[in-house]
Amino acid sequence: MKGLMGGLATMELVMLKHGRMLSHYGACEFRRAYMVFRCALNLLAERAIAMRLARYHMRPKVHQLGHLVCQFLPKNPRYFMNYSDEDFIARSKRVAEKTHPRHMSKLTLHRYVINICLRFSGELVA
Fold first, then answer.
1. 4 and which of 40, 63, 73, 119 could share a cystine (Cβ 3.0–4.6 Å)?
2. 91-117 burial, b for 16+ CB within 10 Å, e for fewer?
3. Could you tell me the pTM of the whole model?
4. What residues contact 126, with CB distance under 8 A and at least 6 apart?
5. What pLDDT digit, counting tens, does each position of 109-121 carry?
């Protein structure tokens, strides 16, 4: 468990310490921390299977972190991830479902902007 948390904590510290691009040392440290994390995760999964305590039918692969290490470094993930885009897609979908199809593209954006303005002004509480 220490390796699991230590690997994640080290990855976070490396990202916080660097700017938009990781140094060569920072990228190597990020990779090393990821390998510690993955090894610890695999050991915990094997232990759970051996003790017949596996609670899930599938084993989490945490593949997003693997993509970061193999394809994204030396860019700093804190500066380039798009989690807010995913949130926007879900929110705009909910708005679009209540709009007539003929005017959906214009009205969806219009309603979203009005909602954001009302929230920022304090008139609308989430």
1. 40
2. eeeebbeeeeeeeeeeebeeebeeeee
3. 0.60
4. 119
5. 888 888 888 888 8
